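User:
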Amino acid sequence: MPRNPGTGVYSKPSPDVITGTTIESTVYNTFVGDVETDLNTARPVSSGGTGATSADGALVNVSGEKAAQLVTDYNTHVWFPGSFRSAAAAAGAPNATSSFVGTAYINEALANPPTNQNVVLEARDQNDTGYVPGRTYVREKKAGVWSAWTGGIYAAPFDAMAYSGMQVNGGMEVSQENGAAGITFVGTQTKFLLDGWVGQAVLTTGQISMNQQVLPTEVPGFKNCLQIGVTVGTAAIGSDYVRLSTRIEGYRFMRMAWGTANAKPLTIGFWARASVAGIYKMFVTNFDNSLITAVVPFTLAGGAVFQWVAVTVPAQTTGVWKADNTIGAVIIIETASSGTANTITTGGYFSITGVIVLPGTQAPTAAQSPLIMRPYDQELVTCQRYWNKLAVNGRFFAAGANHYIVSPVYYPPMRTIPTFAFLSAGSQLNILAGSPVIATVNNSSGYFQFGSNGAGDCFSTGTIISLDARL
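Assistant: Predicted structure:
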């Protein structure tokens, strides 16, 4: 065939026929056969063709994108750049109940068939009730390995969500009451740990300790963790268990709309490690434990290296979930129980930090996780709504058994009228034993009454009182 293979230019197979002469059959047949061959052969792009004999090959040759690729298996599909669609129950889809449409991006040279070593997929849920457009999920293949799907966020970027976490002290930075001191658990006990966190243990035998600890370096962006350490092991777990929990105030949790038809899923992300490899459990209860969600398991590989974990608790359309200043929900992490089959062995541990609690089905990535945490100064103020301490100082001159009253304002205002306890008596002169007498007015101020022994100059300095309005 006379088409130049290098340039793609077509050349006539025979010389021009002279007018008035007879065309020989050989010349005619050669010419017609050549045209037939050329018309039935892929024409080069340089000559107005596609250089291909298939639609996919043509797309590659003209650097085109494929529209509406039908996907039945997201794991094995051969991806071309362009749009795609899938019906419900497609294998490897973000979920098994929705149909999806989206876009495929290819970060490699085009070929037919594509090598598909570096691909990014954006899939939008077409069955997302109540949200237009539907939520978007993202998945990426790097060097031939697929990541998990992430997404489900309603088009809101993470910087807009940075203050929306419902957790209190998820970075385990604030420990006003206990500092880094270990809190020991023997038998059946429930105790406050760090601000916003509660430990619970039911131990037939054995002993554990829970406390704030400085993190190792493998979790950039975080300083502290909450750690459970086993000081005396047990022979068998039986019906015993060890739990961590955080109680979320109703005002913070009410955005979930749980207990209604508009309830949203709840997603919890966190860093964790454990000495024992295995399955751990998370679930959520309402204020009186009358409704307990299904358990959501998560797996830890075991050892000193922290893993980023994200779990989603389905929306709860039933039950009573408070929307006031009482308990809205309790998030519980079970680290050892008959349900987890994890043991309590001397020297064992479980550590957690970077907890973020968000509405919807998406958590930040491991790299994003420190960026979404509130800074320490704001987290401290949030914690002081539930537990705070106050210095009460005063001085007066008394000729008799007089008294004086100090009426400080609490900042920030407490969740409710707090209870009080003396942390330190400080220094006192001529102050009656048992002073001050404590009373409250409301959740933002109270008064403290000091009595004198009538000896003249009276003062009290450095008296420290705790204000407790924890859930």
